[in-house]
Model the fold of this input.
Amino acid sequence: MATPNALNRLRENGEIGKVPVREVTPKELDKLLGDDAVHQGAALEVDPVNRFGLNDIEPLRLVVVLDQITDPHNVGAILRTACAFGADAVITTARHSPRETGVMAKSASGALDLVPMIEVRNLGDALETLKKRGMLVLGFDSESEQQLRPRDADVPLAIVMGAEGKGLRQRTRELCDEMVKLDMPGPIKSLNVSNAAAIALFAATAGRA
Done:
């Protein structure tokens, strides 16, 4: 689906191919894609992104686990950061997590195609599986007494982040090997979850080759 202007721009770069094209107005695209979507006059209908399972990723050295983070902007930004730090996967819950929309894809800046997203029905079971596979599960809480410190390069890490405001659920906290906080000496002790994930990944992997 594309506006006439978008079609003209696309055709300037060569043939579009064997993709059926339907001309639409900008208003029709806005209604279809939603107010948050940023587009340039074209939309492509595609199959959903393939989801991975925990058993599909080997080895697991660094993963980011999201406990009911619902904002697609934040999840997309975390995907981008996870990709930058070489994470093997990002794990989300089947409920209370966003789908792979254009908003998430734009925030991820390409990482949606590079970092496997694993959707699990039971996060507790997934954390148990990670621990059985030798991963150290670090939960983050700004009220924790223990500060995050760099970990040995030989220790596989699972970084667990909770939703802003609610934080980690009780069951998730109980399954973490350690609860840690970021060292923030300033008066504000909490960050946007995507920013916190970036600092956590940097601090936890500092000194790794």
User: Anything to note?
Assistant: The longest helix spans residues 72-84. Helices lie at 4-12, 26-33, 72-84, 102-108, 123-132, 170-175, 193-205.
